[in-house]
Fold each of these.
Amino acid sequence: MSLSFILAVMILLVRLHEMVILSNYHNYPPGSFSTLLFGIKYDIILYLRVSAVLMIPFLLLGLFSQKAARVFFISASVLLVLGDMLLLKYFSAAGVPLGADLFAYSIDEITQTVKSSGEINVWPFIFMTLFLVYMVRVFIKHVYYKLKPWMLLLISAAMFASLAPFGFLKPQPSDFENEFSLYAATNKLNFFSESVLKRYVFNEQIDKQSYTFKTNVATADGSFTYLDEDYPFLHQETTPDVLGKYFEPLETKPNIVFVIVESLGRAYSGKDAYLGSFTPFLDSLMDRSLYWENSLSTSGRTFAVLPSTLASLPFGDRGFTELGEDMPDHLSLMSILKTQAGYNSSFTYGGEAHFDNMDVFLKRQGTDKIIDNTGFGTGYEKMPASASGFSWGFGDKEIFRRYIDEIKADTASARMDVILTLAMHSPFEVENQEYYLSKFNERLAELKLPGKTEAFNRNYEKQFSTVLYFDDALRYFFYEFSKLPSFNNTIFVITGDHRMPEIPISTQLDRFHVPLVIYSPMLKKAAKFSSVVSHFDITPSLLALLDADSIISRPKAAAWIGHGLDDEEDFRVANAYPLMRNKNEILDFIDGERMLANKEIYQIYENMDIETVNEPDKEKELEAELNNFLLKNNHACKNNKLIPDSLKVYTYHGQ
């Protein structure tokens, strides 16, 4: 038992390190100290759980060799504490804890992400090494003592009781002011372990069940009429044309340009952003556009944005693009425009397009040209490198300039192009950094935010400076694009891929809350909508618009997840949406004004804030819906059952 107590002290020392050093070095938000102090409760629970798990092999080994038993316990303890320290280091830099999504990335992707953080230096690793050496020494030199039998019995009972699924043993969202506080209190090793167990045990149980096939599912605008039980997402394509009333009649093929913005969250963009808006140019564009203030990304990471926005696809096991060459046959906006109307297409990105298999997915759509940092060309400048010497690639202004230079030579043919920005990403290094840091202070003064919000924002001036840099780059993009003959015949779709986690997230819904803007000189009027929509809804609505004006003839059936954009001006949540917070974890589901997030049920309010509610029946209903989606998702993606052969005429891959 004395060995076990040493482990407890070491786990508590890791917490002390976070409270005293990491929270200050990484600018945890004000009030974090008390949250971290409260988190000691969950460190003790981790200690009890680890001790319970190690006790049985320790005792069995002790029957043969006391020395072998001690070596086993010491080795396991050192490795576990090392894991706790590394996971804590990740959380302090990323703002979110690491879970089973770790195993969804390749070694190259992990290396690239770690380098990008700018956190690679020798001192943290020296500290960890010295701490672990000290830990081993304490274990070896420790003083043995005996406890009274009743104390041994009590502690042993506590150890095994900690393994029970009691609610009070894990942090409850309702006990914390925001999501960051929830995760700050959480023991990061415990979070990682539970995530891995849920991913690799729970999903196996789901695979053994069968989904419920429904012929009709009610939506706000009618219903999905499903067509074939073996193709669980296939339904009649009857998405209503809600966009047509806002556009002049499309007499020629319009160009469509997607501007997908890395980490553009509603928390800091658009009117009434709760942290204040740091995108003044985009805000002015919203006033001249169709603007959904309550739009949702489908994931908390970039990997899902292309399949969701361009094809309204399910997630697969670890994100649709992770299926690589085994992606099931599917329809997409790009492939339909290419096969039905002869559109040209391109993808422009300042980083490496093979990250998250983006290039593999885009080639399946028939993308004519993929421009990334491996073939950007001369005359363009990369973003400044981080302290580790790493740069993701080219900044947003250079990305926009590269795209404009590319299309200047081809303004006659109809185009569908995708631009993915990069600057609003760790390590948050951009050209003219000092200028944008100064601009951050100017913007903060203009916003006149409440004192608490202003103090919070000042902790993240580098992150906010990249938001201002992007906004300037977007202003440049529209200024240059407006000079081209094709400008007046172009539809621009602007949205974020997810909210930035490095600025602490307030709620489980906040991570997905992004603006959605559709701008075009062909708009008859601007409008702002408060209805909740998602990336899944974009492609069905654009196709409905083009079909209504006879630009294309859309398929009679499709496997879209989305129902189309909702143009209700007042707040409502008309449809159901699965959400995948990161690779390996589909834990969230929205149906109407209720959200299931990691087995907790919340009500969604008009300001997109959420609050836990006590509705056991509704919770079970949402859990059943989420599980049913997972079953359909697994069946369709593993067995190539999204669309039948008859629809492959609309796919570039099927030509």
Amino acid sequence: MRNKIRNHLKTIELFLKGSGFYRGVVLTVAIVLPLAVFNLIDLFAYAPAIALGTFLNAPSDVPGSLRRKINGILISIILTMLVTFIILLTKPVFIILLIAIAVLSFAVSLISAYGFRASLISFSGLLAIVLGLAVSKPDFQSIILHVGLIGVGGLWYLVVSLLSNWVFPRKDDDQLLSDTLSLTGEYLKIRAKLLTKPNKREKYAKKALVLQTQISEKHETLRELLLEGRKRSGRSFSNERRLLIFISLIDIFELALANTLDYTKIDTLFGLEKQHLNTFKKLNKELGNQLIKLSELFIKKGNLPDIELINKIAADTETAIQDYVTEVTLPKAREGAITMRNLQDYQKQLLQEVKAIRRVLTKVKNNAKASLKPQESKQFLTSQDYRLNILVQHFSLKSPMLRHALRLASAIVFGFLLGSILDLKNAYWIILTIIVIMRPNYGLTKARSKNRIIGTIIGAIIATTIILITKNTTVYLVLAIVSLTFAFSLIQQSYKVGAAFITLHIVFVYALIDPDAFTVVQYRVIDTVIGAIIAVIANYLLFPSWEYKNLDTVLATVITSNSNYLKATKKLYHDKEENTLAYKVSRKEAFLAMSNLNAAFQRLTQDPKSKQKESALIYEMVTLNHTILSAIASIGRYILNHSTTPASEEFDTIIEGITGTLLHSASQLESTKTVLVSEENKIYQAHKKLQKRYDNLSLKRDSDIEAGQTIIDDNTLLNLQEAHLINNQLLWLKSLSANLTKTTVKYKSVFS
């Protein structure tokens, strides 16, 4: 019980010291301050429009480079002013207003085609439609004044945002690093469970895919923040520290992916003797816990967590290997022992990366500098294309973006018409609910609808209870401000809780204006329920975009990226010094492509059961691609971190065969010309030669043991490990790529 209370208190402390709450406080201050100041100088009539402008232009202020942040807010200001002007201008004539709403909602939603920040600018534009409907301006002069004040409010928010960034310049960096450390720790713990729990592997594998997607998304944002920041402000000590930690996190993530074991082979090798793997499982779990504890240090002050237990478990892995060899005996135990050695090697590298993060967190100034050169860092940044051609490409009913824009516009127009016909009070809340809830994906829209309704009802009940208890307007004012802060802080973390605080804020604001606040509560709930129902039905019936129909391109991209990654790995084996950068860039592209496929599969699982066509087959393709990526990463990681023998001709032959098979699968998905695949016999002979080399090394080792040389020298061990890993991973990759081709043919026959 005491531990639970302590954990809850720690969670609250991390939240209050985190960037989410800080952002909520900043936005609340930016909104409330003009209201207070203009009230003091008897110019309050101008304050609401400025507050609206502040609120409207805050969404695009998300972590990222300073240049993109400023540009995003400025574009948002122009868009919200234009949308508000059009809505207010057309408001007197209902039919023209209806057309304006339809055209604006469609056009503004299409802005999302330009990426995540653009989607938030689009959201601001859609909000401007709602807030334009909420105000009444009788003449052109008052419209111009209102629109101008919204622009002032947007510029005011930009100033406040820049000031807050100046006061705490690394708040977003630290929060993102903290989140990434925590997610990576959870990922390592999931990987530990995969090792010894065959009955729950599918469940844990799906959890691992979700975490991989989340980690990849964090990596992308951190690349922009840290690499752009480094380019802008130079190599400061604090920048270098964060970049070093980020590099270690990427290495840990690759290490984990690179050691996605052939669990079928593990089960065959160890059978009922998996107790020998328990030490490795425990070490992975403790390394994960260490990362989670380190993540907290970015948010709150504290001492580095103890690492002695991890050092002890790491030492115990050697004993576990010896016990296994003693129990099973050589040569029967050789393959299992080498597998355990490779696992031990992987965990030693993990431990070194964790210790590297600990060293950086001690703030020792003689830490190694991040070796990435400015011109190299550009290659790791994903640039967003802002050409008009991007928008033109979406003008097809095959585009999910266009279908969503049509669906959203139709739902907004219908919601507005329904509210007008029923003469509902504050009917624009219906449109607001539709805009906030509706997403391109049906499952997410349904989940947000449910959370929105529950949150609104909870907020309404709490607000009603407080209004019944007290009529004190000061209490209402304080609660309105506090609830606004928590609404902004929690809306991303928990949509349900955020919706509850939004409802609390709205009710208390109305309670300050109108003594009959219960009517507001009633209509708030009714409008929210109507808006949520419209959003879900529209997503299901209007231009539906089921995920299974959009997977061909995503799958083809992953397969092509994996092929390019394998080619880069081949070059790395031939010359590490020359090809390391190209290898890392191709690795990043492959990881991102896999993350996009994982995300697409998660969306598929949220669609209605009737629309999850052949989900088992699609899951098989996802896992095959993921395993191929892991096997490639395993080879690349070994080459990067070990002294290796020269790459053989047989290695090149097999790699060419595998890449050919992968590109053949991609061409099937893209319905392009078939790629020529290497001769099977040639690849078979190459595999035989590689296997013979490993067998010769094994026989030599058997002879050494018979001669009494029981302790293996480092050079022999490294040669055995390299031959074992390269040979087995290539065999595995060949099998996986062949299975992928068969599965792709089956997939195309089902969905063609």
